[in-house]
Request: fold
Amino acid sequence: MSEYDIISFENRLMANVFGKRPLVITRGKGALVWDVKGKEYVDCTGSYGVALLGHSHPKVVEAICKQAETLISCHASLYNNKRTEFLQKLMSITPMGLNKAFLSNSGAESVECAIKVARKFTGKPEIIAVMGGYHGKTMGALSATWDKKYRAPFQPLVPEFKHVPPDNLEKLAEAITEKTAAVLLEPIRGEGGIRVPPEDFLPGVRELCDEKNVLLILDEVQTSFGRTGKMFGCDHWCVTPDVMCLAKPFAGGLPIGITVAKEEIMSSFKIGEHSTTFSGSPLVCAAGCAAIDVLVKDKLAERAERIGCYFKGKMEELQAKYNIVKEVRGLGLMLGMEFRYDVRNIILKTMEKGLLVLDAGRNVVRFLPPLVIEKEQIDKAVAVLDKVIGEEEK
Ligand SMILES: Cc1ncc(COP(=O)(O)O)c(C=O)c1O
Reply:
């Protein structure tokens, strides 16, 4: 099928809810992808943070092929060996005490489960989230998401959600009431512009939640699996939540959502109170086992820290060189470059020159490359940025 046909069929047949770029990707390997005409791109989108091990990692491909020939689906009302293996591997990397999981299919679903289990366990309705936070677009997750453009058309949302200013312990303390079940936030806000909180914020939130007997839910959908240079974002501040939301890279690129909680919290669900047909499918779990093995064996979190430092350093050189770059932020390979104006044009121009990046709000270019990205590929990305920013600044 021609590039023109692919674009026009997708536009015609698929719900028009994605801000599409005029690019047809047909192949990927590691941190590189190729378009339908064979042009190569350095992929700093990583499929929105999913392709953390790189595209089509051979170990994940092997596991998927092998499992596909054995058993693809098995409802969670029956037991399955791959699901058990995945749960064991998952618990070997999750923070101590978080040892019971619900498996689903996406980040938003992992948040839905966290909201429901917090209400069920505490018997209280209220969830406090953060202005600028992002948790997905299903009705519960959307009620915690801040941005008005996502929320406004779908009112009324789920009741008893409120938002407090970010990184502000005082306002958070004031907001907690007798009705509060949980505080829900991202350790580092991703969609909100790659915002790393001040050193004392997350430990302060943990202390406050303990003091007021409120659950702490951390949405680690974007910050986990080594992305920030540690296994989980919260590891930077030695904070353990009561409930953690995971998704994107955990099944090597296949759809997955995971809500992992303290045993007594997750056990407050009775049979039938929460479920999904695809929970822990053998195919997804086989891919997940391979993904965790690669992450741990290849020490990808450490790699993200090392190579992220290199990338960030290069971005800071660009910041020093160009006035239109306002700030460089982030940890590991979760990086953002804030400009003094809208970045739409910059993103399209980098694409033309063989570099794919994301936005995070109006003024921030976001980088979520696979953790296997090579130094030379980063150099290429930086050379493209240098050229595009140079042209913009003229
Ligand atoms: C922090 C966070 N939570 C939740 C979600 C929603 O995940 P999904 O798009 O898989 O539903 C995202 C997606 O980007 C996210 O970044």
User: Anything to note?
Assistant: The two ends are 40 Å apart (CA to CA). Residues 300-321 form the longest helix (22 residues).
